[in-house]
Amino acid sequence: MTRTRTLLQRLALAAGLLVALLGPVHAQAPSSPKVSADLRQLLAAPAATPVPWAKRLSGQWHVKVLINASSSDPGLVALRADILLRGGSVFYNFLSVRALSALVPANALDALAARSDVIGIAPNRSTTRHASLLQTTTGAITQLPQNAGGQGVPGLDGRGVGIAILDSGIDFRHHHTRDASGNTRVRAAIDIVKLSRTLFGAGWSRGVDWSPSLRVAMDGSRFKHELKGLAPGGSQPDPYGHGSHVAAVAAGAGNYQWPESGGIAPGADLYDVRVLDERGVGNMADVLAGIDWTLQRARQANIRVLNLSLGASSTDSFLVDPLARATRSATAMGLVVVTAAGNAGKNDAGQTVYGAISSPGHEPSVITVGAANLFGSAARSDDRVTRFSSRGPSRGSYVHPSGRRWVDNLIKPDLVAPGNRLVAALGTDSSNQTQGWNLLARTYPQLTQVPGAAQQPRKTLMELSGSSVAAPAVAGTVALMLQANPGLTPPLVKAILQYSAQPLPDAALVEQGTGLLNVEGAVRLAQALRTDLGPALAAGTLRAGDNILAPGKVLPVPSSMLNGQAVPWSRMAVAGASHLVGGDALFTRWQPIYDPGLTWVRQLALRNTVSWMPAGGGVPALTVPSAVVETNAAPTALLVPGVRLLDAVAQSTNGGGRALFTPVQTLAARAAAGAGLTLGTGFSAAGGAISAEGFVLSQGFIVSEGFIVSEGFIVSEGFIVSEGFIISEGFIVSEGFIVSEGFIVSEGFIVSEGFIVSESLLDPTASSDGAYLGE
């Protein structure tokens, strides 16, 4: 490793001599379609729009980028050497995605993009947090089946299931994190922000390759020995306050005081992966490193859920977006990834905006969660989608070197969950004093005005709103589902959540997915299925169409009784990211789309394969991953006979893509009535089903023109514009941190057209819609 680093540094020295001989090279905007659109546009006039990932060094513009690669060499040695030769530096070579984090001269971008082992180059974009009653309204804990024997003890609390919270930190001293013995359930912590600052400083040094040493820091093969050293520490583990609140919504034990503020899975283990700084701002490279750390330790710690209540603006398709690719790898490894949709559902004029799903929420394999407003009551009849919650469809795009453009146009979000004025933990430092409260609480004291809260040390409470706090409600639900049935795969978890969700009135698929989170229904459906599905799939003994009901079980009645009200299920799920499916066969027979290594998106079928390190150091084989490789999937069935395809029914309502805006209640009613096309022979991504007119991306992803049945709901590129809807073309406009419906606070960077233009603060008491103040 040391020898390789020395060689690369020598090559960088040679590059410096070459520059000295040839004279300075002036900045030039890249023209390669492999370079992300926002990066190309910024470099056309870099001085006009300052961003944290671009800086002038020695008279030349340099940019911090993420370079997506395709190579059989997991070390990417040749690519790293080329970066150093051109006067750049390498920060990290990721495990979760075949990519490098690097600093490169702007005028070297086209040359690097021209390499055959480079898929795309994106800026290291900023990531930000998107900015009980919860248990009662969702059917968690008190509504769930009791333990055998009927002793009245809740049977499920997430115990034994690990949830990794990639955020601003977790206050491990807070009473919400304690178990029955009084010990913290934050089992381990890693501060990626501190690690990056220690290794890289400000990150503008040239001619250095840090990637070997950072790989060692992420290596999980010694996790059993390092666990003690990674235990939570420090006087203020969450100086910003967002991560502690998010963790408490997912898994806070809040029944020790009034007001009751418990999370969904109060027995789950928590893993604190700090990737956002003291202002709640981070970057994609640190998030990717946090994902790497989690994947390296997931099987040893039984981390089954990864919560990302954060997002980055991205113009890129999920095919090449680094965060999307990394979360796809995490899914392939068996983790259920839950992420926030974003808070860009309306613009400054109060108009509804479509197509503003942030990264990695635009990734098909993750569970993307929008926010619902409970209006302060446990009754679900008045719940609605918040107006700030980001709408779909996802709008990332990819331009092939041939000039052909792919636009994702995927149905997102997947569902919505409570996300307005949720009460949970207020993280503090070790002083136990008010002056030691987190930055959010000190800056916006109105967040701490929780009726009835005594605000005693280690028992402090605050309220927050946004899709950021909706996502962990789903993450906690997943922990309950996996405690009830550890054999569930990530895609099957998503299908269950969508199928059992309650459609809200007057909201379409691109606003609410299939509906509002229903914890009781999701757990009950999970308990009806076999508990060996994951192991059977891994062993190769599970075949398409096999029975997946548990012995003696039948499908549950598709309705829940919550707080005395009947809650109908949607009885629908999204498949292929643009098709709507239903029917009992979805959960009585094994569907190939439940394989977490398979990603089906319209005409695409991708395969992610995980390689594992051999046994060593007391760690068994098949425990610590060594690489994840994505290829085109082999011909395979996707859905088996008996599944009902609901595309035609939905499209007949409004025609074509406009079905995306048909109320989900209407679609659900038709699904419940048995409408739709029942597949007789299934359909697949076999060679004969795909048109030969397609083109092949550099990593082997087949993108073709046709597919069996239809393209799904999206049938034309311009349908949204033609209908008069406002749509974001992938340039996500961040609405900042949401204090509540009607209160918008941008605590860090305000993003306009994908570029960071200021660090201004919006007045937290300002609102363009007084009718919603105080909701």
Nutshell version of this structure?
This protein has 775 residues and is an alpha+beta fold.
Description:
Helix 1 runs parallel beside helix 3 (77-85). A hairpin with a 2-residue loop joins strand 36 and strand 37 (743-745). The protein contains 21 helices and 39 strands. Helices cover 24% and strands 21% of the residues. The strands form 13 sheets. Strands 7, 8, 9, 11, 13, 15, 16 and 19 form an eight-stranded mixed sheet that branches. Strands 1, 2, 3, 4 and 5 form a five-stranded antiparallel sheet that branches. A four-stranded antiparallel sheet has the order 24-25-30-31. The chain has three domains: 2-126, Peptidase S8 propeptide/proteinase inhibitor I9 (Alpha-Beta Plaits); 154-637, 3-Layer(aba) Sandwich (Rossmann fold); 737-772, no CATH class. With 775 residues, it is of the alpha+beta class. The model is unreliable at 1-27, 142-154, 686-724 and 728-775 (pLDDT under 50).
CATH topology title of the largest domain: Rossmann fold
- Tell me which CATH architecture of the largest domain applies here: 3-Layer(aba) Sandwich
Q: Find the structural class using helix and strand composition.
A: alpha+beta
Task: Quickly count the domains.
Answer: 3
Name the poorly predicted regions: 1-27, 142-154, 686-724, 728-775
Please, what is the average pLDDT? 80
Largest sheet, in brief, is: 8 strands, mixed
Q: Mind telling me the C-alpha Rg?
A: 25 Å
Task: Please tell me what the overall shape is.
Answer: globular
Q: Under the CATH scheme, which class of the largest domain? A: Alpha Beta
The CATH superfamily of the largest domain is known as Peptidase S8/S53 domain
The percent range for strand residues is: 15-25%
Per DSSP, the total helix count is 21
